[in-house]
Amino acid sequence: MAEIPAKFDAIVIGSGPAGSSSAYYLASKGFKVLMLERGRSSGSKNVFGGRVYAAPLKEIYPDFEKSAPIHRWVTREKVSFMHGNELVSLDYEGNDRKSFTTYLSQLTGWMALKAENAGAAIVTDITVTGLLMDGNRVTGVKAGNESVKADVVIDAEGVNRLVLESAGIVPPLKPSHVALGVKEVVKVEPDVIANEFGLGEGEGMAWAVLGDVTAGLPGGGFIYTNKDSVSIGLVVLLDSAIDGANEDIYKYVERFKSHPKLIKYFKDSRIMEYSAHLIPEDVWSLMPPRFYYDGLLIAGDAAGFLLNLGYTYRGVDFAAYSGYLAGRAVEQAHGHGSMSAENLSVYTKLLEQSFIMKNLKRFSGTHKLMRNRRLFTVYPAMMASLMRHIYSLDYESQKMFSALLGAAKENGAGPFTLLSDGIGVMRHL
Amino acid sequence: MSAAEQRLEDILNNDIWDVDPQPHITVDNEKCKKCNTKPCVRLCPAGCYTVSDNTLVFSYEGCVECGTCRVVCPLEAIHWEFPKSGRGIYFRFS
To answer: Which domains occur in chain A, in start order?
Structure first.
């Protein structure tokens, strides 16, 4: 094995949001950092839904709002229940610069450039294949026949943890651990976005759709407006999809896009890109036994840091912030003289004190809730029949309460089912 | 299928790859033969897996590198790793 003679303070595996922010933090504190990326450029292997929450990124990058590639600030949040040709929607306007849409490939490229400008060395086209070990201590990384040494390795390799699996730190992924996201980015002109989505200059929409969009499979659809395109796709829990998907998964996206109530957004549009990615779902089962080892920290998707609530996903800000905290942990361990597991254990403390672990704990029951099929079948249908009873009239108007009872009865949800599902939602969401 | 729905090969035509001459996917046909469900066929978003004459046929060239096949294969017949040296899918707008 050929060993690269230079030795680094830190090696970062993967230049996604987690890796790039850790490399940026450490390089700006004067550490000698090497970040290795398997793609041809940083961001070229990254996929997300379409929206990023800004606060954590603003904390990491003071100039974030001024210079990051932000497409549109989300000013309009929509949640819809789809049942056949019907759509029942809740539409919220009132956000002020809390989250934005972008292409993750672009955002990650920007973040990697920040790391490079801070002094980190980035080498692309390198797939890390394993950890270099001295007993139980991680001393560097292997890439094919080559190896590089460092005092500490930050593993930000993403959800497909081939490196951590090969080191025996985590078992292979199981279908119940993850969801599958599939999406198309579709060219839509800004004036069409403005008119059809009802958005002003620089304003964006985040739209979650539940129900028939996944043919009743646990998961949901999403639509995000970018500068001059729209991201449309869906997420399905992988274990449910194994049993329940009756046709090729790409067809679900095509059908979503051609839904009678949605087609107007996409007529004459052309697909710019098609992508897919696995998403941490049952994060408490997916998490590695520890986030720190002798000479090793784990950040981002690889650590299971993603919040999936069905109507909202938070992955990029969680990843970026965990990378930043990994950087701070390395800085503190350096102050204590070595990258031992004991010194690096401060990483877990930083995570526990941050919004990352607080959120993941608060919502630890949602993945069970997501497995309640009724949320994706009975309730969207019920919402549609309720609205139909109230609004789809020829002569006779109906009282709200009898419309509600009628809708529940039509869809086979008795009062006890309604009550217990209602309590489940209140407890977990 | 409504007129607006597109075929997968037309959808995939919008993506860019630098194909690795070395396949990053291999399938153990002996193990695969014993699998009746073959979830990889429906769940691979890029349609890399098809069944022909009761045998699984795969192509690695159009892989979008999500890793789904590796996770859903019930008999661990699919060996999937990342393409080497910057090869594979190149996302620009995702």
So the answer is: 2-70+104-174+286-364 (3.50.50.60), 176-280 (3.30.9.90), 377-428 (no CATH)
| Tokens found for residue A398 | 């109906």
The answer to whether the pTM exceeds 0.90 is: yes
- List A89's β-bridge partners, or say none: A80
Q: Give me the phi and psi of B25, to 5 degrees please.
A: -120, 135
**Residue of A38, A60, A80, A303 whose CA lies nearest to A205:** A80
Three-class secondary structure of residue B40 per DSSP? helix
> CB burial class (10 A; 0-12, 13-18, 19+) of residue A345?
middle
Contact state of B18 with A40 under an 8 Å Cβ cutoff? yes
Show the domains of chain B with their CATH numbers: 8-89 (3.30.70.20)
**Complex-level ipTM:** 0.96
What does the alpha-carbon distance between residue A174 and residue A156 come to, in Å, rounded to a whole number? Answer: 19
Shortest distance between the Cα of B26 and any Cα of chain A, in A, equals 16
The contact set of B with A (CB < 8 A) is: 2, 4-6, 8, 11-12, 14-15, 18, 37, 39, 41-47, 64-68, 70-72, 81-86, 88-94
pLDDT in tens, B11-28: 999 999 999 999 999 999
Helix (H) / strand (E) element for B57: namely strand B55-58
Q: List phi, psi (to 5°) of A197.
A: -95, -5
Residue A352 is encoded by which pair of tokens? 């526990």
Give the tens place of pLDDT for each residue, A352-407. Answer: 999 999 999 999 888 888 888 888 888 899 889 989 988 888 888 888 788 888 88
Q: For residue range A208-217, what is the model confidence (pLDDT) as tens digits? A: 999 999 998 9
Question: How many other β-carbons are positioned within 10 Å of the β-carbon of residue A402?
Answer: 10
pLDDT of residue A271: 97
Tell me which DSSP letter residue A44 carries.
Answer: T
Q: Residue A176 in contact with residue A282, Cβ under 8 Å?
A: yes
